[in-house]
Each structure stands twice: as structure tokens, then as C-alpha cells.
Amino acid sequence: MMYVVGSGPSGIACAYTLLKAGYKVTLLDVGFTLKDESQSLVNRYRKDRDTAELIKDIHLLRKKHRQQSDVQPAKTLFGSDFPYKGIDDTFVENDDKAVIRSSLAKGGFSTVWGANVSCIIPKEMLGWPITFNELKPYYTLLEEIIDIASPKGEMSEIFPVNIGYPPSFPLGKQGNDLYESLKPYKDDLADDGLYFGRAKLAVGSKYSLDNKGCSPCGLCMHGCPNNAIFNSAFLLTQLQKDDNFTYLPGKLVTRFSEDNGEVEIHIKDIHSSDESILKGCRLFLACGVINTTCIVARSLNLTDHEFIIKDSQKYVFPLLRWHRSRGCVKEKEHTADQIYMEIDNPSVSPNIVHLQYYGYNDLMLEPLRQRLGSITELVPKLFSGFFERLMICFVYFHSDDSGAMSLKVHEYKPGTKGMGEIKGQINPKSDAIMKSILRLLKKHRHALGGIPLGLGVQTLLPGDSQHIGSTLPMSQSPNAYQTDLLGRPSGCERVHIVDSSVLPSIPATPLTLTVMANACRIADSVDKQTMEGPNV
Length: 536
Hints:
By secondary structure, this protein is of the alpha+beta class.
């Protein structure tokens, strides 16, 4: 029996690859699910399609559960905060220089992610013990389980492979206007190392209701009522139809050991608190960086070590365009990321910088909503001329240009609460890079059809991007705090880490698809090397 821990994207990709090879797989998961109050809102919407009423009710739930923010609001799934729900056993303390979010949800953070995907750019893999060509076939494999909406051939100057298929849904008005503004300046932008294209999104019909895919409704930032945005929980439901697959929710893995050619997995039932041991052929950890690292440290007596969590530094700034995108505030459009822009310019950074441009969505009003309450909904109507010019850009750095965090894991003792503590580390050069980016974008203001507002820049703390990893990086010659090319910690033969903990660095480009591809690579490599054969 192969055991996989965690139902997020990397865990589900690993399980799929093992099942495809003919193995029996059991997936262990805490597996929190959508709350009834939010599910009832979705069920009602699927009948009446009243978007305005649904958004109103979502914000009432956000307020009830204190999910509102005067900075960057945390995304919820139809107002439910279950993706962020923790338990005492997994609590990690952090200081005021770091933001920590981990998920015990069924589907992990794919329940509330932005659906942004891409392959990694080879330049971002400098120092890795594997090559892009070793990952390449697994990006293709992932198209079997995840829809990727990506115009063919676009941004081929920077992305080495084309994945996915042309989107079946249109850009929003602001996204389309920005795209059309950029196109005549494509060569000028490329001369300065700026490459743009339509955002690559994990959106399609594979798991959607009635196979309809995206039916633009303006709800992307709250969840897709049509199930068109990929959620690994959707694939988990399909895998449960396979006789070789077993799903065990409510199980928290605390540690492991290897003995006599088997892996012993120590688990705790989150409802009864009963502890037990499972034995299997191999164990694949995909619990998210913090949980995975804590399990490994407690299992291998590494609690005296300070693990470094690498981060993709995130900034947010407003782009004020000169011309209005009339009607974008009131029309139902897809409100996920609209435009990608990659910067490969050594005067900015020796590393890639990734930008995502968003049009109007109601979460932009979150700071006002806290102060003005229900009358906030009048603001976009009264000031439509402003909001029809305003776009928001998310900026992501390579981990070499970013802050980081340190993690100290507490020794495991039955009955004790909490796993460890985290401290943030600010990188002083990050702000300088951001200023260089703003200067470069202002130079190309005619292409953008507007100006980035430097006064509106928000600097997020390490961890807030949720693009983190590298605590147990792969190495050709691993030491005690690294893993081999199959994600195996030092001294382990049958335990593999398949989430972003094993990436040697964190790219600026979207992380999820690369982590999934590496999980597939490890699972496939294990299948090719294992002596046990299928149906174990």
C-alpha cells in the first residue's frame, strides 16, 4: 500500500500518478470541508443566479467570521473560512514579521486559490539538481487532470512549452483594454525584457457542472459556483471511484519511522484523539511546507535545527489607466487574473519577476466596507469613472530577491499543543527592486495606457504570498537537512516529500503547476525504480 498525506494539488497529483501505475493508494487527510451556511448560499445561487444577492450574503458571512481586512483580504470560499481552519496540534506561533497560512482542508489551498498556472522558466531553476527537461513531460501529464486555459504560442519567448488550450471565456473589459493597449508595443516592451500575454488559468469544463466550464458571473474572487476553477477535491472525488484508492479523512499524521522494509505512520484521529499506527510500502508527504517540515523534523530528531522557509516576496500596486473601461463595474465578467507580465531585465534583477493584472472586483472595496458598512455598495456606482480606470497588480519575486522565515520545530510529545514557531526575515533589497520595476513600468506608460501609482504600493510580509518552500531542498549530495532527487530525507528509503518543501528555490512564476509536476516526477520515478511492482 502506498500512503499519500494531504489532498492539495501536489498530493492529488502524486496519488493520480501512483494509481495510473497500478498501485493501491490510501490518502490520509484532515479534510475540512465547506460549511453548511456557505453551501446553502451556493445551492440557492445555482437556482436563482442572483449574483448581487449572493455577494451581499458572502460579505455578511465574511464579517461574521471576521474575514474582512483593511489591507489585502483573505479569500474565502463563498464566505467560509474553512480552508484556514486549524487545530491545536498544528498551531505554529509567528512573530510580526511573518504571515503564516496553512490549510487542512479537503483540497488544501486549491479551494481558494487564484487559479494562476504556468510552467517554470528554466532560468528560475539555476542551482536545482534536476533540469527543466526532466519536469517537462509531467506538465503534459497534468493536462489529463487539470484544465489549463492558455492561448497557444503566447509568451513563447519566455515560457519554453505551451500547455493547455485556448480559453473558452473572454477577458473582462479592463483586461481586454489593457491587452489591446499593450499589443502595439510588443517589440518595444521585449527590448526592455517585458513579455506579456493573457493570464494562464486552471479553468475549464473538466469538473464543471454540466460540463459548461466558465460562465462569467463576476464571482471568481469568492469561488466558482460552476466548479470551473480547478480544485483538487474535485479530482479526489473522481479517484474515489477507483477500487485501488481509499480516502481517510479526519486523520492527522504526526510522525513516521522505517522498519523492516516498511513505513510506520503515526496518526491521530482529530475527532476522538485516538492514536494509531499504519504500515505501508511507501509514504508520500504533501501536507504543505510547515506541516511536512514539522513531521519530518519530529520523525528524524531534527528539532534542534532552524529550517529556512523561502518565500516569493509579494507586492501590490494600483494601475490607474487613462481611459475608462465602461461598464466593467456592473457587468458580470470573469474577475480572476487578466494579464501576465514577466520581467527579465538585469537592471531590475538577475531573476525573473512575475506580474498579474486584475480588473475591478468587489474585494477592492474591503477597506471601505469596514468603515462604511452597507453603504459601501454605493461607492462604485457613484465613482464608476474612477473604478473603470483602476486595475490592481500583484508582483512576485524569486526567492533570491525575497524575505524568508525561520522555523523551529517543537519536539513531539503526546498531548502537547502546537508544532513550532516562525520568525520573519525581511530582505532589504526587495524594496529597491520594486522601485526599479515601477520606474520601468512608468517608462512604458504609453503601452500600459496608464501609470502605476507608487504611493499605493503595499509590501506584504514573508509568507503572505503563500508561495513558500525549500525547507528540505533536493540535492545531488544531500546533507542531513536536505533530500535526494526523489524527495527522500536523509536516512530514508521509503519516505518521499512531494510538496514545495523540496524545491531548492521558489520561482516568481506561479508555483502550483511546477510543484504538481515535480510530485508526478517523483511518483513516476519511484514506480520505475521500486522492486515491489503494482498492486502492493
